[in-house]
Amino acid sequence: MPSGPAMLLGSFLLMVATTTVAQPRGQKVSRSRWIHRIQQGQCSYTFVLPEPCLPEPEPFGSSNSLPGDSPADPPPLGDWRSQRVRQLEKVLENNTLWLQKLERYIQMNLKPELTQAQQHMVQNQTATVLELGSNLLNQTTTQAHKLTNVEAQVLNQTSRMKAQLLEASLSTNKLEKQLLLQGIELHQLQTRNSALETRVLTLETQQQAELDDIRDEKERLQHLLGRQSGALAGLERSLRAASSNSSLLQRQQRQLLESVQRLVQVVAQGPASAIKAAEQMFQDCAEIQRSGANASGTYTIHVANVTKPRKVFCDLETSGGGWTLIQRRENGSVNFQRNWKDYKQGFGDPAGEYWLGNELVHQLTSRATYSLRVELRDWEGNEVYAQYEHFQLGSEGQLYRLSLSGYSGSAGRQSSLVLQGTNFSTADADNDNCHCKCAQMLSGGWWFDACGLSNLNGNYYSLHQHMRKLNGIRWHYFKGPSYSLRATRMMIRPVDL
Ligand SMILES: *[C@@H]1O[C@H](CO)[C@@H](O)[C@H](O)[C@H]1NC(C)=O
Ligand SMILES: *[C@@H]1O[C@H](CO)[C@@H](O)[C@H](O)[C@H]1NC(C)=O
Ligand SMILES: *[C@@H]1O[C@H](CO)[C@@H](O)[C@H](O)[C@H]1NC(C)=O
Ligand SMILES: *[C@@H]1O[C@H](CO)[C@@H](O)[C@H](O)[C@H]1NC(C)=O
Ligand SMILES: *[C@@H]1O[C@H](CO)[C@@H](O)[C@H](O)[C@H]1NC(C)=O
Ligand SMILES: *[C@@H]1O[C@H](CO)[C@@H](O)[C@H](O)[C@H]1NC(C)=O
Ligand SMILES: *[C@@H]1O[C@H](CO)[C@@H](O)[C@H](O)[C@H]1NC(C)=O
Ligand SMILES: *[C@@H]1O[C@H](CO)[C@@H](O)[C@H](O)[C@H]1NC(C)=O
Ligand SMILES: *[C@@H]1O[C@H](CO)[C@@H](O)[C@H](O)[C@H]1NC(C)=O
C-alpha cells in the first residue's frame, strides 16, 4: 500500500535529478525558466524550474555568482577554485532549498489526493476483504452449524444406542432371570410329574384288578340275566295263552248268547226262515262251520263296519276247515290288472277266481287274530302250502300293510313274502321300496317290496306259456322267479277256531 505513493514520489525525484543533470542542454522556454511536465494517470504536473544562473565573471566575493570559464583575468588559481566551489555550493544550496520547497509544495498538494486514493484503495480492498471475510465467515459458520448438527446427531445416535444397549442389557437380564425361574419351575414340575406318574401307575394297576373283578361279575350277571330272561319269556308265553284263553271264553260266551237269541227268533218265526236269518249274521266261514255247515262252497257273510253282506267261498274241509277264501286263481277267467279301488273293494266271482277285498280283510283281521294259509299248484300236479300263524292287514291309511309271523309249510324252507311292514301297491298306487313301479312292471296288486319274491296276482299264463314269465304268478321258494303257477288259494281263519 505505501508502495504506490512512494513509487510515485521516487519517479518524480528521479525526474528532477535527470532534469538537473540535463540542465546545460535543457530546453529554454523562457530566459529564466525550465518547465517540466509530468503525466501521472489522470493528473499532469508542471514544474517550472529556475535556470541556474552562472553569472558573467563577477568580481570575486559575490556570494551567489559562480565562477565562469573566462580566463580573462585569472585570479590566483587557488582563490578561483575555492571561489568557484563556493559558488557551486551556493547554487546547490539554492537548489536544495528549492527542492525542499518543492517537496513541501508537492507534499502539500499531493498528499490529500494520494491519501484519498490510498483510502479509496484501502476502502475497496477492505470491502473486498471484508466481503471475502464475511463469505468465509458465512461458510465457516454454516460449516460449523452443519458440524454441530452432525455432532448433535452423532451424539443423539450414540445416546440412543446407549439407551438401547442399556435397555437390551436390562431385558436380557430380565430374560435370564425368567429363564432361570422357568428352569426351576420346570424342574419342580418334572419332579411332580414323575410323582404323579408313579401314582397313576399304581392306580392303573389297581383299576386293572378292579376291572377284572368287574368283568367276572358282569359275566356272572349276564349268565343270571340269560336265565331270568328265559324265565320271563316263559312267563310271557303263559300270560299270552291265558289272555287268549279268556278272550276265547268271552267270544264263545257272546256267540252262545247270539245263537240263543237267534234260536228264540227262529222259534218265534217258524222254521222256514231259520237258515237264512242265521246266515246273515255270520262274520266268516268259521262261524258258518260252527253253526253246523260241513260242505265247502259259497256262503254269505256280514262283517261289522262293512255295509253290504258279501258272498265268499268257504273251505270247510282242509285241515279242519273254517277257511274264508280271500284269493283264488285257477284258469285266468278274471282279469287281475286292477287299480287300488278294485283291490280295496274286491272283484271276481266267489265260485271261481276272485279277490275278496283289502278293506274287508282289514276289518276281519283287526277284530280277531287270524291265520293265513296259501295253497299253490304247479303245472306238474304238485300241491304245496305256506301257513302263517298270525296274519293281519293294516287300514287303508296304513296302505294295507302286511303283518305275518309263524311261517311253516311245504312251499319252501322260508317265506316268499316279506313278513312285516310291506305296503300294498297297485299300478296306480306305488308304495313299494323300489325306485321303479313294481306293480306296473310285474302286473296286479300285491305287497311288493323291491320287488319281492312273490306275486300271486300276476298275469295268468296257460300251460306251455308259463315258463320264463317274470310278470306271471310267482312264488320264488316253490318254483323259482320266472315260473307262472297254475292255481293258487289264499284263505284265513281265526286262530282260536
Ligand atoms: C537564488 O536564486 C534566486 C532565483 O532563482 C535568486 O533570486 C537568488 O538571488 C539566488 N540566491 C543566491 C544566493 O544565489
Ligand atoms: C474498486 O472496486 C471496484 C469493484 O468494487 C473495482 O471495479 C475497481 O477496479 C476497484 N478499484 C481499485 C482501485 O481497486
Ligand atoms: C450466507 O450464505 C447463505 C447461503 O449460502 C446466504 O443465504 C446468506 O445470505 C449468506 N449470508 C451472508 C451474511 O452472506
Ligand atoms: C434425537 O432425535 C430425535 C429425532 O430424530 C428426537 O426426537 C430426540 O428427542 C433426540 N434425542 C436427543 C437426546 O436429542
Ligand atoms: C287254556 O284252556 C285250555 C282249555 O280250554 C286249557 O287246557 C289250557 O291249559 C289253558 N291254558 C292256560 C295257559 O290256561
Ligand atoms: C254233513 O252233514 C250231513 C247232515 O246235515 C251229514 O249227513 C253228512 O254226512 C255230513 N258230511 C260230512 C262230511 O261230515
Ligand atoms: C267300526 O265302526 C265303529 C263305529 O262305527 C268304530 O268305532 C270302529 O273303530 C270301526 N272298526 C274298524 C276296524 O274300523
Ligand atoms: C274258469 O272257472 C270258472 C269256475 O270254475 C268257470 O265258470 C269258467 O268258465 C272258467 N273259465 C275258463 C276260461 O276256463
Ligand atoms: C309303508 O308306508 C308307510 C307310510 O304309510 C311308510 O312309513 C312305511 O315305511 C312303508 N313301509 C315300507 C316297508 O316301505
From TrEMBL:
Q: Supply the alphabetized keyword list.
A: Angiogenesis, Coiled coil, Disulfide bond, Glycoprotein, Secreted, Signal
The record's Gene Ontology cellular component field reads: extracellular region
Q: Does the keyword Cell inner membrane apply?
A: no
Start and end of every Fibrinogen C-terminal domain?
276-496
Instruction: Please list where the region (Disordered) is annotated.
Output: 56-80
Tell me which SUPFAM superfamilies the record gives.
Fibrinogen C-terminal domain-like (SSF56496)
Highest taxon in the source lineage:
Eukaryota
Q: Which residues form a coiled coil?
A: 186-224
Signal sequence segment: 1-22
Localization annotation: Secreted
- What Pfam families does the database record attribute to this sequence? ANG-1, Fibrinogen_C
Query: InterPro entries, alphabetically?
Result: ANG-1/2/4, FIB_ANG-like, Fibrinogen-like_C, Fibrinogen_a/b/g_C_1, Fibrinogen_a/b/g_C_dom, Fibrinogen_CS
GO terms, biological process: angiogenesis; blood coagulation
Matches recorded under Gene3D superfamilies: Gamma Fibrinogen, chain A, domain 1, Gamma-fibrinogen Carboxyl Terminal Fragment, domain 2
The main place the protein resides is secreted
Q: Which NCBIfam families match?
A: GGGWT_bact
Q: What is this protein called?
A: Angiopoietin-4
Give the originating organism.
Chrysochloris asiatica (Cape golden mole)
